[in-house]
Every structure is written in C-alpha cells, then in structure tokens.
Amino acid sequence: MIxxxxxxxxxxxxxxxxxxxxxxxxxxxxxxxxxxxxxxTGDSSALKTETLEAFDGVMKAVRLHKPYKLVAxxxxxxxxxxxxxxxxxxxxxxxxxIAGPCSVEEEEQYVETAxxxxxxxxRILRAxxxxxxxxxxxxxxxxxxxxxxxxxxKDETGLLLCTEVMDPKSICKVEKHVDMYQxxxxxMQNYDLLRALGKSGKPVLLKRGLSxxxxxxxxxxxxxxxxxxxxxxxxxxxxxxxxxxTRFTLDISAVPVLNQMTHLPVIVDPSHPxxxxxxxxxxxxxxxxVGADGLIxxxxxxxxxxxxxxPQQLTxxxxxxxxxxxxxxxxxxxxxxxxxxPPQKGGGEASGWKR
Length: 355
Ligand code: PEP
Ligand code: MN
What we know:
8-stranded parallel β-barrel, 15 strands, 31% helix, single chain, binds manganese (II) ion, alpha/beta, 11 helices, Alpha-Beta Plaits, TIM Barrel, 18% strand, 2 domains
C-alpha cells in the first residue's frame, strides 16, 4: 500500500498517519520528493484504503498488487535522482557514464586510465579490486593492495569511484576509499550482501543476474531499500540466451520496462553483453535511445594485455570516439551527458562545455 499526501499536508498530519501505522503493527517508510508518500511494506491486506483516506492530509491510498513496494514507481512517480559528491547526479536529466578498466591491475596504468576518463568528461571511474570470476583459476582482483592506488587516483583526479563488493566483509575494507558500490551479476541475489549494502550509506549499482528476471531484480533492489538505502541504480548488463555470437544478450527492452515499473535510475552496461569491443559502441547508443540514465563502459589502455575481459574493453581512442558520438543522442533524449549543458547551436566545441 502507498499512502500519497496532499501537496499542502502538514508535518503533523503526515506524522499522525506514520505513527498510527506503527501502532497498528505495520512498517511504514516515508519519502519526501515532489510527492510525499508512505509505503507500507509487508502484508497490508487487512488495511482498507478508506481507513487511510479518512486522515486529513491524505490524497489517496493505493493498494499495490506487487511484492515490491519501495522500488515501485508509485512510491516516487517523479523518479529518483541520486546525488553524489561534487554535484554528480544519476537520474533525471543527468546521463552519467561510468568508465574504466574491468579490473584495477597496476598503479601507474590505473592512474593514466583515470586521467583519460576524466578528460572525456566522465566523473565516475570503475575501481574493481575484488573480481568475481567464473573460474577460480582466473585473476581474482588485486584486492586490498590496490586501495592506496584508489586513494591516489581520487586525490589526483577528483573522480568518484565505483567498486564491486562480493560479501558484507568487503564493504568495510573499501568504504573509506570509494563513493559507490557495484553488485555484480553473480551476486544479484546475495541477500546478506544486499542487506549490508542497505546499511552502507553509499549508492549501490545493482547489476541484473545472468539469468535474473526483471521482477527478481526489482526484489533485489527492494532488499537494499528496505534495509535503509534508497540510492539504488539498476543496471541491465545482458542475460543468458541461446545465442552465442555475443557473450550475453543485451535485453534492451528491460530499460523501458524498468522505467515503467520503478522510480530508480536505470543504466546499461554494453561491454559485458557484447563480449567483443566491436559491438560496444552500437549497444551503448541503443541504451541511450531506449531511455537509460547512464552507461557503465570498460576501457583499457592496452586491452590485449588486460588481466580480465580484454576482448570487450575499448581502447582509449574508441572510448573517446564513443563519448563524442553519444553526446548528440543523449541531448536528443533530453539529457545532459555527465551533467554538461550542450553547446549552443553554431557555437561548436570551441564555445566550450558548461556544467
Ligand atoms: C564487471 O563489471 O566487470 C563484471 C564482472 O560485471 P558483471 O557482474 O555484470 O558480469
Ligand atoms: Mn568486466
């Protein structure tokens, strides 16, 4: 059930409904956005909508016939915009490109990559030091050894860092060094991890499981939100199908579906479904065109020597080209690439970009 308040509802009126719900044994969750609403999580079938609509200040009570409540579009119809340090935003009119190598490998190379990513206007860098690999014999990430490199990169570039965590314990190892957490496809249903991230206080990029249904992904996000963290970004990264020409099949329709079902921002990872760098550019553009709020793209100085996912990582040149080609498409979709205002007509790039 979602209780939606009148625009001019007073704090006293809202508190009264909240407290009454608690007295009745429900778990209400309040959110203030363009609309103030209370979601009642858990079973509220015994509650009548009329009972709630009788309270002063309540505009309507909507029964949700869905297992997820906090991620539901009805809870926040205007959409969630995640705000991070330095004015970086994901969602709404801001189209964010998160970029960087699949794995952090060596210090100097990582620093160099960070500078390139910054030069293209991106503001969030991939910073994976723990890697979930299908084979136990493959490179598992540099681990804690890489943390001082992350600090150096942040000090030198001011980029925000997004790192993958695989279990609740790894959160405390990296929390001082990073700005957002990534839940990899293989961990979408790692519920202990999701609950722990719900208490982490930093945005969480939640990737769709290799065979994860959209509903299961929404419920995974509900785990994070119901544990207290409302800053969740959904990421479509390709699903397993019968097709082997690509590594996975990018489920492009998941983007409009998610945009209809949830208020959370939705981004696309074109790298992992492609599996080959030749396809990344087209899939990235497709992601923009179907209404994504951002991308996460793998880029490497020397992909042929990458320690993981070499075939799908873009070269620096390819990444720069992609960023140039994306900008007009992002603008046509009514969004700003990495928060930049598009140049004035006829002004060209020489007129300069403004944030
Ligand atoms: C990654 O981002 O490098 C990664 C391992 O992605 P996924 O979890 O989507 O496979
Ligand atoms: Mn990868």
